[in-house]
Amino acid sequence: MLNNLIEANNCILCKKPRCQNNCPIDTPIPEIIKLYKENKIEEAGKILFENNPLSVICSIVCPHENQCSGNCIKGLKGEPVSFNKIEYEISRKYLESVSTKKIKSNGIKVAIVGSGPAGITVALELCRRGYDVTIFEKNEKIGGILTYGIPDFRLPKSNIELLEKYLKAVGVSIKINSMIGPVVTLNKLFEDGYKAIFIGTGVWNPKRLNIKGETFGHVHYAIDYLRTPNSYDLGDNVIVIGAGNVAMDAARSAKYYGSKNVSIYYRRDVCDMTATKHEISEAQDEGVHFETFKSPVEVVDGGIIFEDTKKIENLDGSSSLVPVEDSKKFYPCDTVLIAISQVPRNTIVINNKGLDVKQGGLLITNEFGQTTRDGVFACGDVTNGARTVIEAVVDSKKVCDSMDKYLQQFLGN
Ligand SMILES: Cc1cc2nc3c(=O)[nH]c(=O)nc-3n(C[C@H](O)[C@H](O)[C@H](O)COP(=O)(O)OP(=O)(O)OC[C@H]3O[C@@H](n4cnc5c(N)ncnc54)[C@H](O)[C@@H]3O)c2cc1C
Prior knowledge:
FAD/NAD(P)-binding domain, five-stranded parallel β-sheet
């Protein structure tokens, strides 16, 4: 049975598909919809998966409003086609039913450090090309932010389990609870015969507000909170600072786990928020309150002090944000959650000479994803800063090509 046939029938299969042209990974949307209508799920699933190994995840978490559905021609005069619903149905069914065998290895070992979207993509792609791939993951579960950041009510974890099952079936070794860096160094991996190393360790250190009182007991960083939200007792009144998807996830999780009054405080306007419109409206629908033009000044016992801000027009037409005089005010709350982005942890560069980083700790790579150390490649958030799943997948595919090229020298030796 097809669950999204009405959606698929709404597609007019444009010759120049704006949906596909605005998909960062160039998903052949009209072709997939055609196959779906013909009930060729396996064929459609294979095409989706080979183009984007994380299609099942992207169908849920991608900012579709800026990509496929946001550019659908039908959306100009009515409802756009929600291709992501069709993509999810196909990708999920495909992963549930595909029968996979271990892929024969060429004997060349490759180490993948980190099992987020970048690590999973590189692992699958290099395994497909015949390499003997081992993933080293410091946590007990794979998935990175997909597992330890995005809440379950938004991204059911069964999708990551399906990917894990697939990875194991094709022969990727997964070492959990295994941190690479301080003790098990990159040198050690090379000594043990790995010919190339991929680093996809993401960004896990929260950015600080750098205001007084930030260490107080009622203040937490959203990226830490989202790892295990059910182990926190936030109280009834929660203030979340920030306006990206992390802030929305933190606010929605606080509501989900029982806090009554959850508010997002942001120093600019709603239209400046980096979270998708969809995420913002979901948060609003769930009762999250929004306060704009409020900048945090100091955390104090029992709450936090904000100062009002306002936008002013500059002579060159640009705008700046300035504080409003005498507007500092105390806002009581039980918990403050800070969600103003993340930077990389330095575990991977400790004891690993030759891996250069730029400002903010991001790994330096060239256009081919090569780091400053021979044989070591990287991409995803650890090189670009906090971005999106699809960007990590797109970059990973490119890095696989350069790793494959680099590894050719070891073939036949
Ligand atoms: C709360 C939240 C919500 C988000 N929502 C969305 C969304 O809706 N849509 C979207 O597209 N993007 C979203 N993002 C961003 C997206 O999740 C990231 O851009 C993406 O996960 C980056 O993938 P990555 O593989 O580079 O890193 P990560 O997902 O961070 O994975 C890195 C992995 O490396 C492991 N690791 C780190 N150091 C080591 C080490 N030394 N040794 C071994 N393993 C190590 C980590 O444990 C982790 O598993 C969100 C981010 C957050 C924080």
